[in-house]
Write a structure and sequence with these properties.
With 129 residues, the protein is mostly helical. The chain has one domain. The protein is 53% helix and 8% strand. It has six helices and two strands; from the N terminus they run ααββαααα.
Length: 129
């Protein structure tokens, strides 16, 4: 990270940087998966950035690429009963069993998160389109 990048974001609070980092990352995910079906139900529709492991319980992998995939509005918000039933097997097909095991391992760690402004600036700069 360069001093210019730090200065560029100096007027934003850490909370605002986190929100911007999430927006930029989600846009990147939607762009990456734009030609793919919903990872959960398989329908081709407008996609959101759906987390396999929820950010509320697994904030340490909020910005983990393998954890966030294109998911339709219905599955992402309104289909919590079947969310993992379709998501997990399709995620395994997408990233492979070894990568899924690594993601499971990261999720189980639930350690301290990097909630600081420099981490969020790194995310913004890495994933901005």
């Amino acid at each position: 990270m360069t001093p210019n990048q730090i200065t560029k974001y100096s007027k934003l609070t850490t909370t605002r940087l986190k929100k911007k980092a999430q927006e930029v990352f989600n846009k990147w995910v939607r762009n990456r998966d734009k030609d793919q079906p919903c990872i959960n139900c398989g329908r081709f529709t407008k996609l959101q950035a759906g987390h396999f492991y929820a950010t509320s319980t697994h904030p340490n992998i909020r910005f983990e690429e393998a954890n966030v995939n294109g998911e339709c509005l219905h599955c992402n918000y309104f289909n919590s009963q079947s969310h993992a039933h379709g998501y997990r097997p399709n995620l395994e097909k997408k990233i492979g069993l070894e990568s899924l095991k690594k993601l499971d391992n990261l999720a189980s760690q639930r350690g301290a998160t990097k909630d600081n402004r420099f981490y969020f600036i790194e995310i913004i700069e890495k994933y901005k389109l």
